[in-house]
Amino acid sequence: MSASEIYKFYNDQNVFITGGSGFVGKVLIEKLLRSTNVRTIYVLIRPKKECDAQKRFHNIFDNILFEKLKSEQPEFRNRVVPIHGDCTTTNLGISEKDNERLKSEVNIVFHVAAAIFFNQHISTAYAINCKGTENVLSLCKEMSVLKVFIHVSTAYSNCNRPYVDEIIYDTPSKYTQVENLLNRLTLKEARKLTPKLLESWPNTYTFTKALAENLVRDKSGNFRVGIFRPGGVTSTYKEPLENWSDSNSGPNFVIRCASLGYIQIFSATHSRIELVPADLTIAALIATAWDVYCNQDKDKLPIYNYVTSNDNSLTICELFSVVCLQLRNYPSNKAVWVPNFRTVEGSPMVYFFIFCYHMILGLILDFLRLLCFQKPKIFMVMLKTQLIIKDLYYFSVREWNFSNKNVKDMWGQMNEVDKHLFNFDMGSVQWIYYLRNYFKGLRVYLMKETLEAVPEAKTRMKRY
Ligand SMILES: NC(=O)c1ccc[n+]([C@@H]2O[C@H](COP(=O)([O-])OP(=O)(O)OC[C@H]3O[C@@H](n4cnc5c(N)ncnc54)[C@H](OP(=O)(O)O)[C@@H]3O)[C@@H](O)[C@H]2O)c1
């Protein structure tokens, strides 16, 4: 490891991570523990209705994602510490003791936490994505040994532009104006005004992520800052295990619903899709903190567009055509209908027919359920699914051009040992190899259905 510059950078460092209980955060924690010698990782974690923060923290490590780490480093739990709190609260709502500890010890911060649902209420999206970022930055300003702060954004924060450079684009309304307005409005009024507020952004997620980037630029302190913008993060390619994901967003949502029979037709084009496997994404994110601290000017705020199409493009139709072949090979035991998933060329009119088709199918299937004395539920699920699909439509019929010069330059700065330890070269991904087992991974890790149950599901499928 002595030849790894990135390993040296992380050696004996204390890291603070927000969003550690989420999909991206878990992969980040695992890789940092397995491939670097960080001293401690502090993980911000909030309680949820059904579970207190301590239990939620322990649950993170029950995930199969951590099995390899457990076998290689059984004592790894000594290096992770929960920090109970919530981004949206002043001072993150953390205890005085934790506050002091973070202020005096933390060297590297990854701000990963976010509200990622596309059409979350604008006030919630703002509170988490913007106010949350501001609160984390305020704490960072008080950290006496902080070296670098990395803000995780998204490649789609500027999806209202056809070309996205590695720069911060000013938003037409400043985040302060948006905040002042939201403070004055009731939730109902804010919802009504949302389409106007969003201007050319398609949803509250991308809009508030764009505002947050502006906020990071304006409010960071006397430490180095970088913004990392990945495309759609998908299942792992190889590390620590193949095809792992527990995310139910983007293409995973479509594929899961298709396997259950809730989506039969999807409107897609031959547009490029910016998918980036989670393990490569995290390798790039870890390298970003090193690059910002070791290779960039102190007064610069480098942006890293981590995308696919410049090096190894994949289209939406290619993705779904490979994956849909697997749906019948590994049918789900919970499917309500045969997964006859197919894609058609998209236009608003085609989308309208697809919507109607699903609604009629939902009514027919519910009628059949009633005849079998079962509770009708399929129509409602299909309706909700189609409403989410409507939100994805914007992304399934467009493509973007990205500059990824900073990512390329960072790769160029890395030595061979680091390139091996922290491989994020999208050119090395063999899409066919990856996609062949994509659904198998979702079935096991996201849908929690074992492969042993496949024969039973196939028999069940024959009855339809
Ligand atoms: N997934 C993608 O395809 C993708 C693509 C591009 C960029 N990104 C970016 O990557 C980051 C992580 O995304 P993800 O897919 O991992 O999302 P995720 O699975 O929904 O995780 C979100 C994380 O943020 C935490 N969080 C949300 N609100 C919080 C609050 N008020 N206080 C403390 N923690 C809070 C969540 O904690 P709880 O468990 O308590 O809810 C969770 O740990 C986001 O910044 C997102 O914009 C993701």
Structure description:
The protein is an alpha/beta fold. It has a domain at 5-230: NAD(P)-binding Rossmann-like Domain (Rossmann fold, 3-Layer(aba) Sandwich). The protein has 19 helices and 13 strands. The protein has helices at 5-10, 23-35, 53-60, 67-72, 96-105, 122-141, 175-184, 187-198, 204-219, 251-259, 278-295, 316-327, 348-371, 378-396, 405-413, 416-421, 431-436, 438-446, 454-463; strands at 14-18, 40-45, 80-84, 108-111, 148-152, 163-164, 224-230, 232-234, 265-268, 275-277, 303-306, 342-345, 401-402. The strands form 4 sheets. It has a 7-stranded parallel sheet with strand order 3-2-1-4-5-7-11, sandwiched between helices. Strands 6-13 form a two-stranded parallel ribbon. A two-stranded parallel ribbon has the order 8-10. Helix 13 packs antiparallel against helix 14. The N and C termini lie far apart (56 Å). The mean pLDDT is 93. Bound molecules: NADP nicotinamide-adenine-dinucleotide phosphate. NADP nicotinamide-adenine-dinucleotide phosphate binds at residues 18-25, 44, 46, 48, 86-88, 112-116, 128, 132, 152, 154, 209, 230, 232-233, 247, 249-250.
